[in-house]
Amino acid sequence: MSHRTPTDILVLHAVRILGYAETARIAARFALPAGLAAEHLLDAEARGWVTHTDFAGDGGWSLTETGKVHGERLLAAELDRCGTRAVVVQVHQDFLPHNVAVADACTAWQLAEMGLGEATVTLDETITRLATAAHDLGELEARLVAGMDRFAGYHHRFAGAVERAGTDPGWITATDRDSCHRVWFEFHEDLVASLGLAR
Q: What is the DSSP string of 72-128?
């Protein structure tokens, strides 16, 4: 049976992979009750692991350096306790070539949108490349979820963004939604955080 990560670790991890987010978004990341997530965030703040800041009228949580180190320690212990470290290490290695392909596809699309560079790429070509990545992501996620359920959901979100991009190209790289780029970035951050690696 797939391991269920404790709620306090999920909340801290959500702050890590989201980078900066309000309480509701942190709770939603792992389908947690907002009130429960808020309690854990306040506890983490008291311990110096997260900090809350307000910017232009919006408030959000971010991880402190101490919180980052503590979170990586918790994730490492969980991998070892569940015996899933070898799987996560292998998935990360297998992920890296796909990461290059997705980064190249997103960059090429952004340059084409701005009319920069000599090479041109069409929306259909970009979506085809990202659809291939979605298929590959599904296989990587399945291997991870067999051992730990907190890795679930990336494929569904990424594939959904690819599908929406056909009628709204903003779903490729926009930062105001669950775009292909944002979901892929979160998956990468999840892997490096779990293994205590730098990007």
A: HHHHHHHHHHHT-HHHHHHHHHHHHHHHHHHHHHHHHHHHHHHT-SS----HHHHHH
Q: How far apart are CA 72 and CA 17, in angstroms?
A: 12
Average pLDDT by stretches of 10, the chain with 199 residues: 87 96 95 96 97 86 97 96 95 97 93 76 94 97 95 97 96 94 97 92
CB-based contacts of 157, cutoff 8 Å, min separation 6? 178, 183
State the amino acid at position 39 in one-letter form.
E
CB contact at 8 A, 181 and 173? yes
For 52, the 3-state DSSP assignment is strand
Token pair for residue 74?
């918790």
Q: pTM for the full model?
A: 0.93
Round to whole Å and give the CA distance between 184 and 44. 26
